[in-house]
Structure prediction request, 655 residues.
Amino acid sequence: MRFQYFAIALLFLPILVAADEPGNGEFACSLVRGSADLRVDGSLSDWDARTATHPLRWSKHHSGGLPDNSTATARCVADDSFLYLGVSISANPLRFETMPFNQAWRNDAVEVFLSSRAAGPSAHIGTGLLRVSSDSMGRAVTEGSISVRDGAHTTRKFSYPLLWEASGVRTGLQVVPSGYSVEVAIPRHSIGWTETAAAPGLSINVRVRRTCGQKPCPAVMQTSDDPYNASPEGDELYRPMSLGRVFRTTNRPSASRPDGEATGALVYGALLRLDAFDSDGAVALLRESQDRRLLPIAGIALLARGHLESARSVLGNIGSGEIGDGVRVWVRETRARTHALQGASSLAEGEYAVLAASTNPVFQDIGVAGLIDLALAEGKGDAALATYNAAFGGPTAPGMRSASRIAVWLEKQARVAESVNVLNRLAESEWADDSERAWALLQLQSLSQRNGDIEHAAATGWRLQALAPSGDPSGEAGLKKLIAMMNFGRITTVAAPAFSESYRRFLDANPGATDPARRIAYAAQLWWEGKSDAATELYNDISSELGARRKDRAAALLNLQRLHLESGHVERSVETGLAIQDVFPEDVRSRLASWQLMHAANAAGGVPISLDQQVQKFERALARDIRGLADDSIGAAQRSAQALLIQFEKELNQR
Prediction:
């Protein structure tokens, strides 16, 4: 039986895809010959009134209604040198607190998602997220992530301070009585836009984040028609940009020539080298420039190369007058890590202690987590726990970084109840945002599963699905665990906690409107409720959906095979299992899981004589393919395949 569970567990690793369709229509942008003469200060007063406006729509979060009556519009202008975006937001109250680098999403903020298919070395930015917000001092904050493209290959995303600025991007934010406005100027050369009147396969989504009760709202406003708030990762969730009429023409070139073209090329080259683990090449390239905006990436490149003293010197050379507090925290944390790598624990401790003493809870969490890491590295677990309790004892809610460090250590010490308490406090914290609470619930789900408490793991998993925004990594991981547990058999004999009421109503009215993985979970819920006909119909739809991922289609067939078996329809169950051989002839693990269910059917009532020859043929083909897998694999994969073959043949002989 344990092998059966193991075999099926190998199968269910579904990759969730966004359930949303792209927005209708294109993102129209007005074209100006020469210069648009726009000051990038956050004010939209100098924009031409004839520029087309794009209203942003609230995403429909499955936890309930919309956060407030805020509204937003976006506008776009392109001249010979820049692509300009102007966003006007009507909203109150606003929250602009000082946050660590790349965490301004906790504030009110504007996000611009870009995807360019331009080819050639001039296209520095392949895809990226550009975020504009403000700190508590009223200073504009620019952050986000950049991906660079080398021909058809796109690297991983990079998130370092001043990356956008080094590419020549300029931003501005201005607060007004009714809300605030944001301007963004992106050099056309950075996205490979060289032709005057042709955008380089550019797609855009503009998103406005709001805060509710001192934490991010579960819903956002955006131009892309993305009703379940799934963060876009590909062109399919963006709106393609189109150029509108030329409403103004000047005879002079742009008044604001981009000053980051040479620096942008260096950034592009350095990131490509870092992606290829060529830190030497990145360091050599960055030394060609004296541009101070490259100091953070230069420090990281030196750190990756092992030049710890040089890295610390470069990071220490970033002056307080040229960056905001959030970046200075990033610098201090990176410097502390450099000290720790050098074995200078006392110096690293001093850096982290400054952060731990901060009145900003997010900065405090970074510092406390660093102190915990140092103590655990030296084997001082009790000291780490004391540091955690001193910072987050009593009514103070723990931060996610500190909670993760100490919860893992407590579990390793077999102090599971204490670990659960730490995670529960974070999951129930009013201060933590939904993504942090979702992370804590995922850890609780995993902890319960590892300790054999499947009932609690399932209940926590459903609680996570009701909380996590669609597309949230913790929510997706928790859903995969739920699907895997479902295929071990029914988790509980009573109706399990379901999706939130609003999301369940949506599924009941539109059973085919979401992604296959969630439909599988929904079908399992219907099955538990005794609605096996509705569940069967859903499983059939998913298994025959040619556009669905192979693993989701296989999961649907296996669920259907088990449903028939548990409903007493042995012949129908075996027929469904045999279909996997026809639909997925190369999927050894799905076929192995199907054979296990056939084995269970044989034990329950015997395989019908009419299907016996087909089952034997299925078995022989499966044994041959597992043996081939064992012969073709190497190392651990080969040993795993050989173990599968031995176990399979052993169980086959016992039939």
Summary: The first helix runs from residue 2 to 11. Residues 43 and 174 are 6 Å apart (CA to CA). Residues 1-24, 227-236, 488-497 have pLDDT under 50 and may be disordered.
